[in-house]
TrEMBL record:
GO BP, sorted A to Z: intracellular potassium ion homeostasis; intracellular sodium ion homeostasis; potassium ion import across plasma membrane; proton transmembrane transport; sodium ion export across plasma membrane
Membrane-crossing residue ranges in chain numbering: 56-74, 244-262, 268-296, 686-711, 717-735, 763-782, 788-806, 827-847, 862-879
A UniProt-annotated Pfam family: Cation_ATPase
Catalysed reaction equations from the record: Ca(2+)(in) + ATP + H2O = Ca(2+)(out) + ADP + phosphate + H(+)
Protein name, UniProt field: P-type Ca(2+) transporter
GO cellular component: plasma membrane
Length: 881
């Protein structure tokens, strides 16, 4: 039901309540029993054991478990134990991550005020908020949290801060009058107060129309529960990789079995050999290395002022194509600030933002007019904002608009905020219908002056004179037209415009408001706005270069949102602006068609945000959603990556997100995107390295079987290569620095596989050459006949290891080893040197020789090994393929 459309009497009738007596205790208890407590219900959580075993449903994990069973069956106990440890480590990481992921509803429940002031049986009483029922008459005052959704019955200067629900930065004045309109957004329902919002000023009375999960916050909580969790691109790609490896494993098994049987070997023996090779295809260390690299990426992100709650989210940022950003507090500072003044027919720019430091600059490049100090002084006097001690030093307490004027006055001259002997003797409070506020001040000579501050369009008809150069002059049509033009200029820039006027009065005139607020002398205009963040414009431009579209989604008015978007160069001239009302008449299919050309969505609801994100996803986009309010939480969860604000963000938004910005800075996202892109490229590098190395191992074994030769490598040697030679350099590749043009490249296609952009060819071709040179080295050493089989295997072992260690430098660049400085990654240098030293230990240290079936090699042997092992990298570096 649209409660805002009903009158107060109709609302009371619908809720079976009475404004004078409230509900009886008996009826209240009946309703409480029938409809339940006024609290948000939590989704039933799975037991820890179920959550743990869910981690084993991942395709790659299942592949590794199969590999573990096969290895154990073949007697390769070390292989089986190592693989099982890796699987358990990854599963435990996923388990602990998931146990922390669903706290959103618990945080939402904490928002309810524990005590409510309600009218029961004609008496005001305090009760626990969870006992509030529909029909209860509730009294609220400044500083209170709204305990349920209320239809306002009466209020005195009642304003409610609803930014967490609506995205609007300013408190909303609440009235009791019915509003006749269809599909009204939350921000425009001025006779409603919603659960979880905060009373900023005044006091009022309302009747409860919804409790618990039926409130607007409850509906948002329901959206969070129902919102599907999206798999990240990295999870999809690794799942695809696992399937590819299974297919390859089955194909290799069949090939080896058939080839061996064809050569006359016993079928059972060949089946076991084929299974051994198939197991070797799977890089056991890949999941662990991915986890470690992502974890190290998380640490780097913290240095860039971003906290990652989910490891795979780091990579997801790198494939982002659209960033849906909230306006208030994300692209803007969420602090109403005086940015322009108009006095003595001159425009004055104010810099410095919401701080006591800044400059006042005349746009005409002339001296500042004398009337500037007077405008700011009287604007401050007609205000209830005051400086006071806070936890972080001196802060301003009061309405955001009045706080902005006080801050500007302090910035101009500290003495302006002092009353200097003036005493307030009367006040006509601001009223949304009157759109103005008036105070009467008395000086030390008992003279009185009225100061009127309010909307210029209302005050223009009440002005009789205008102060120019300290003298009052008649206010004619020319002067009026000049001021109207200035008001329009400020409105076009999304400024909230305040006019300040004065009038000498007699003390007795205060009883007559009409006389008090007419025949005024105009002092000037004050232009106020929530300014864009200084660094946001540059960040958006960087996003454009990176092929990322920025979309503003806000609960603010369309004109304000459009002006901010234009100031940030967020939208092109042909870009569209859609409002929440526009979205209600668009079907999902129509929205999908229009969302590509739309850059600003204004006056939207939480459901609208969900539709927008899902429409973009339907068009194939990877969507990052930023936000700080409760209203952002469902969209944060359903997006590919949710980004919340660490400073101004609500706990609900943080729990629903994967990334938290410590400085609430949009530009931090750009750094996170760069980090994400680099991490994915590094993952591709070590996948290329690991799989080409494994391919070489498999092929050298396959060649030997086909030509009826002994195995060139023993299982323990292959295990050593996979865990030591492969592991350390692969991990070092994950720490490689990004290429200079990384942020000038378009985002990766959503459906791009791991082997895209020629990676599959690189893996097969390099692996083939690595396998060939290793087989040639073994064949030459074995057929020479002057040495033992152990010698031939040691030659093959050394050639395979060195070929991989040289090849790792080729993996740093998609084109050629010569395109990047070979010593640009110090971690890789140390990893390669460590692997070389470990290889020497296995070859020359006598305690390890019998374990790995190796013998000592001569300098001549090593020269041949290095020559052969360099061939794969050099061949493809010169061809650049």
């Amino acid at each position: 039901m649209n409660w805002y459309e009903l009158t107060t009497q109709e609302t009371l009738k619908q809720t079976n309540s009475n404004a004078q007596t409230g509900l009886s205790e008996t009826i209240a208890q009946q309703r409480l029993k029938k409809y339940g407590e006024n609290q948000l219900t939590e989704q039933k959580q799975s037991g820890w054991l179920i959550v743990f075993f869910k981690q084993f449903q991942d395709f790659m994990v299942m592949v590794l478990l199969v590999a573990t069973c096969i290895a154990a069956y073949l007697g390769e106990v070390i292989d089986a134990v190592v693989i099982l440890i890796i699987v358990l480590i990854n599963s435990l990481l996923g388990f602990f991550q998931e146990r922390k992921a669903e706290k959103s509803l618990a945080k939402l429940r904490e928002m309810a005020t524990p005590i409510a002031h309600v009218l029961r049986d004609g008496k005001w009483t305090n009760i626990p908020s969870q006992e509030v029922v529909v029909g209860d008459i509730v009294k609220v005052k400044s500083g209170d949290r709204i305990v349920a959704d209320l239809r306002i019955l009466s209020g005195v200067q009642l304003t409610v801060e609803e930014s967490a629900l609506t995205g609007e930065s300013l408190p909303v004045e609440k009235k009791s009058d019915a509003i006749k309109a269809d599909q009204l957004s939350l921000g425009d329902q001025h006779n409603m107060a919603f659960m979880g919002s905060l009373v900023s000023t005044g006091h009022g009375v309302g009747v409860v129309v919804a409790t618990g999960m039926q409130t607007m916050v409850g509906q948002i909580a329901d959206l969070i529960v129902k919102a599907p969790t999206q798999k990240t691109p990295l999870e999809k790609r690794l799942q695809h990789l696992g399937k590819v490896l299974i297919v390859i494993s089955i194909a290799l098994t069949a090939l080896v079995v058939l080839a061996g049987v064809w050569r006359g070997h016993p079928p059972y023996q060949m089946f076991l050999a084929g299974i051994s090779l198939a197991v070797a295809v799977i890089p056991e260390g890949l999941p662990a290395i991915v986890t470690v690299v992502l974890s190290l990426g998380v640490q780097r992100m913290i240095k860039r002022k971003a906290i990652v709650r989910k490891l795979s989210a780091v990579e997801t940022l790198g494939s982002t194509t659209v960033i849906c950003s909230d306006k208030t507090g994300t692209l803007t500072e969420n602090k109403m600030t005086v940015v322009e003044l108009y006095v003595d027919q001159q425009s004055i720019d104010v810099s410095g933002g919401y701080s006591v430091s800044g400059q006042f600059t005349n746009k005409n490049k002339a001296a500042l007019p004398n009337g500037l100090a007077k405008l700011l002084s009287y604007g401050t006097l007609c205000s209830n904002a005051r400086w006071q001690e806070g936890t972080d030093g001196h802060v301003i307490d009061g309405d955001p608009t009045e706080a902005a004027i006080l801050m500007a006055a302090t910035k101009f001259d500290q003495n302006l905020v002092e009353r200097n002997g003036l005493r307030r003797i009367y006040e006509v409070p601001f009223d949304s219908n009157r759109k103005r506020m008036t105070v009467v001040m008395q000086d030390e000579h008992q003279q009185h002056i009225a100061i009127v501050k309010g909307a210029p369009d209302i005050l223009l008809d009440r002005i009789r004179s205008i102060e120019l150069s300290g003298r009052a002059q008649p206010f004619d049509q020319v002067q009026r037209k000049r001021i109207e033009d200035q008001i329009q200029k400020m409105a076009n820039q999304a400024y909230r415009t305040i006019a300040v006027c004065i009038k000498p009065v007699r003390a007795s005139v205060t009883a007559n408001h009409e006389e008090l607020e007419s025949g005024l002398t105009f002092l000037g205009l004050i232009g106020i706005m929530d300014p864009p963040r200084a660094e946001a414009k540059q960040a958006i431009e960087q996003c454009k270069k990176a092929g990322i579209k920025t979309v503003m989604i806000t609960g603010d008015h369309a004109s304000t949102a459009r002006a901010i978007a234009q100031q940030l160069d967020l939208m092109p001239r042909s870009g569209k602006v859609l409002t929440g009302h526009d979205l209600t008449v668009l079907s999902d299919e129509e929205l999908i068609n229009q969302v590509e050309e739309t850059y600003v969505f204004a006056r939207v609801t939480p459901k609208d945000k969900l539709r927008i994100v899902q429409a973009l996803q339907q068009n194939g986009h990877v969507v990052a959603m930023t936000g700080d309010g409760i209203n952002d939480a469902p969209a944060l969860k359903v997006s590919d990556i949710g980004i919340s604000m660490g400073v101004t963000g609500t706990d609900v938004a943080k729990e629903a997100s994967e990334l938290i910005l410590l400085d609430d800075n949009f530009s931090t996202i750009v750094g996170a995107v760069e980090e994400g892109r680099n991490i994915y490229e590094n993952i591709r590098k070590f996948i290329r390295y690991l799989l080409s190395a494994n391919t070489g191992e498999i092929l050298v074994m396959l060649f030997a079987m086909v030509f009826a030769l002994p195995l060139p490598l023993l299982p323990v040697q292959i295990l050593w290569v996979n865990l030591v030679t492969d592991g350390l350099p692969a991990l070092a590749l994950g720490l490689d620095k990004s290429e200079k043009d990384l942020m000038e490249q378009p985002p990766r296609p959503v459906k791009e596989g791991v082997f895209a952009r020629g990676l599959g060819f690189k893996i097969i071709s390099r692996g083939l050459l690595i396998g060939m040179v290793t087989f040639v080295a073994f064949l030459f050493a074995y057929q020479n006949g002057q040495q033992s089989l152990e010698y031939a295997r040691t030659i093959a072992f050394g050639t395979l290891v060195m070929a991989q260690l040289i090849h790792v430098f080729d993996c740093r660049n998609p084109r050629s080893i010569f395109d990047r400085h070979p010593f640009g990654n110090k971690y890789l240098i140390m990893a390669v040197l460590s692997s070389v030293l470990l290889l020497c230990a296995v070859v020359y240290w006598s305690p390890l020789q019998p374990l790995f079936y190796t013998v000592s090699l001569s300098l001549k042997d090593w020269l041949g090994i290095i020559l052969l092992s360099s061939i794969p990298t050099l061949v493809f570096s010169f061809t650049k393929r």
